[in-house]
Amino acid sequence: MSFRWLKRYVPQGLQGRAALILVLPVTLLQLIVFVAFIQRHFEDVTRQMVRSVAYDLRFLTEEVRDAPNLTAAYRAISYIAPPLNLEPRLPADATPAEDQRRWYDFSGIVIIDSLNERLVGLEAVTLPDDRDANIWVETPWGDMMIEFDRRRISASNPHQLIVIMIFFGVILTAVAYIYMRNQLRPITRMAAAAAEFGKGRIVRYQPSGAREVRQAGRAFLEMRNRIERQTQSRTMMLSGVSHDLRTPLTRMRLALSMLDDDEAALLRKDVDEMQHLLDAFLDFARNDAEDDTEEVDPVALVGGLVEDARRTGGDVELVREETRPLARLRPVAVRRAVSNLIGNALRYGSRVRVTLSVSERMLRVVVEDDGPGIPEARREEATRPFTRLDPARNQDRGSGVGLGLAIVADVARSHGGALRLGDSAELGGLRAEFSIAV
Predict the structure, then answer these.
(1) 159-198 and 211-257 helices, crossing angle to 10°
(2) Cα–Cα distance between 367 and 301 in angstroms, integer?
(3) pLDDT tens digit string along 355-367?
(4) The CATH number of 294-437 is which of 3.30.565.10, 3.40.50.2300, 3.90.1300.10, 3.40.1110.10?
(5) Which is it for strands 418-423 and 430-437: parallel, antiparallel or unpaired?
(6) Where in the chain is the domain with CATH 3.30.565.10?
(7) Upstream peptide bond of 140 is cis (omega within 30 degrees of 0)
(8) What Rg, from alpha-carbon coordinates, does the chain have?
């Protein structure tokens, strides 16, 4: 039997589930105690109290029935009823057709059943409220109504016990929840630090809490430190590669500029191509850790890139949806990613639409073009490094090394987001959605 449907009603957060684990057993325990003990107590005590009053009622009705005439019956009532705290009326005005009680008066069911078992000639029982009880019994002089105090046959509600149960249940649950929340707080802090690290942000985190939580926290710090050392080593290596390769390329370009023949022109083209390849490799492998997060106007950032594309002759349209003035992000990396998307769209299409949307938690940039697009089966492959999809994208319209979309996907992942490729419903080409957490 599957219980997956229960997941919809279970809290998603750790603290919510901990509270449910604490509150549910306490509530169930109190309910079981109430039903199994208090309800049985009500029923047993009520039957005993009805049995005691039934002796008085039976004695009175038997004396009235044994009286030789109505006057003797009245005399018996006047002698017996006052000491027993009973108020008879003979004959009764009207006898109800059936027993009566309030629908929620469950102890009244026990009272009516017990009276019918112990009183001969009982016609009807009415329990209008918690103070009065009325019965009608058959006599030779007509039906007699007897009124008496309801509290003589009903067990009083044990309010004190119920209040104590609820009060101490709430107190103990609150104390347990506070203790549990203090135990869960280190896990929450570690999850927040991991989420920020996934967005490319380093926040201060100190392991605390239970032994297992501290072990997990120290493991997270060690992992984060290893990743930082690896990225720093990569940065140092690439800085050296950049310096060592750019210098000879510059000398080669300077030497070739002094030549005028066609062969030198071809060599200059090769040098420019090498420079382009080197820049692409460095853009892909560059560490963005030094690009600190800051409050940036996303409209100004994306709008500036669109204006730059228009100045080069591109047909680029900017559409603003939900936006807010500032968003915390890493501007250099985001600018590089959006610039690559716009550049790719202009390379393979003639018309480009850029849609910007910034919510409280997410920045989304959608770039659409009217180019040939990318087949659905090869979209995942298109985001891999050094992948060139010749059948899908016209490579004659610009040189590339297959790193444009890979750089965008890497920037999105480092900011806790994703790059999603699809078809543009309006322009008919590629639809690239770049979304990051802010």
Answers:
(1) 20
(2) 15
(3) 998 888 888 999 9
(4) 3.30.565.10
(5) antiparallel
(6) 294-437
(7) no
(8) 44
